[in-house]
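Final report, Chapter 2: Outcomes

The project's central promise was a pipeline that accepts a single protein chain and returns its three-dimensional structure in a standardized token representation, suitable for archiving and comparison. That pipeline is now operational. To close this chapter, we reproduce one record exactly as it appears in the project archive, with the input sequence first and the structure output second.
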Amino acid sequence: MAGLSAAVFIGSDSGHGRCIPANVHATVSCGGTCKTAPKKSIATMDSTNIWPPFPQTPLNVMQIVGNVIINGNFPIVDQDLLTNHPPTCTQIVIRAGCKYPPPPLTCPTQTLCVEDIAGGGAHIRKAFATTKTVFINARRACRVGDPLGPPCLSKIATGSPNVFIGV
């Protein structure tokens, strides 16, 4: 069986979701705001919000495997943390219960998503290696197609052009 490209810190991840800005996220009381609207998880919001492809860069360069180089780049290994993944969509929050309801609010996804709020406006990405046989410094090596979560639903999308990792 042919292997998949070794994952390295270059390029971007796959991104996930789709942006539907006309989606009504919630209905709140008359004085409600984006911050007081009910919060939902990435898994729930993925069908109406987008987290576009984002650079595959380490969250902390001091924690990467620095003594192995693949085509001039550092490899991504199991449990590596990548920079947080921001959304780029908005949702509608309707204010109801007023005699004269104000116009609906257009709220950024990062104010409505539980994981994005916890991450300061973007959710964490953690690499999860799927190989069972290839290790770098006693940690499983990641490949293109390996997941970057949960909570992130993206996958590693860029890797080495000529180093492949099997099962």
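Archive annotation: The chain has a mean pLDDT of 96.
This record, like all others produced under the grant, will remain available to the consortium after the project formally closes.
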